[in-house]
Specification:
Blueprint: H1 7-16, H2 30-35, E1 43-45, E2 65-67, E3 87-93, E4 95-98, E5 112-115, E6 121-126, E7 133-138, E8 141-150, E9 166-168, H3 181-195
Parallel strand pairs: 1-2, 2-9
Antiparallel strand pairs: 3-6, 4-5, 4-7, 7-8, 8-9
Amino acid sequence: MPKGTADPAVLAHLKQLGLTVTAVGDPVDYAHAMSQACQYDLVVISSTIRSRDFLPGFRDIKVPLLTWENDILDDLRLTGRYKGHDFGEVEAEHYVWLVNAPHPLQGGLSAGEHAIYDHDQAFGWGRPGLGASIIATLPGQPDKAVLFGYERGATMDYDFIAPARRVFIPLGNTSFDKLDTEGLKLFDAAVDWAAHGSHASCGR
């Protein structure tokens, strides 16, 4: 985990949720982690991963996956391939627009505008495929989703079929510990929904 990032805070919070966490931060270990993915309930990919070190095979793992790195959304087939059009980053925002209140990913929050940070932060967005459940967008920009998920078997981009649940959330390298109460509710809901996805295709 690179110094100066919020990754240690994410790790600590996941443990507070009662999860057993194995951290992998060295690119030389990514292939091993990918090969062992079926031993876990959830794979989390932080935005501190360098896109040049990312292994495309992660898109094929048959366990749920959660990420907040917008530069690998196309590699994971969560969005199309064109940066600035299919995925990107907002430099300063602390509000999101929740649009899918009945969905578990919405964390029990009502539809409409919500502040998820106390002050402006940078975080990613994407334009997911038609099979996605879009939970939140940037205010006034409904084509830019900042929280969305795919159920196992849903059609992602490039006509790719989700091998297990996939979730994208609105975080950046240093923003996790700046989430407010509602932001944490969304984060916890994303972890819970993703981690409880089906593992049938993994032989469980």
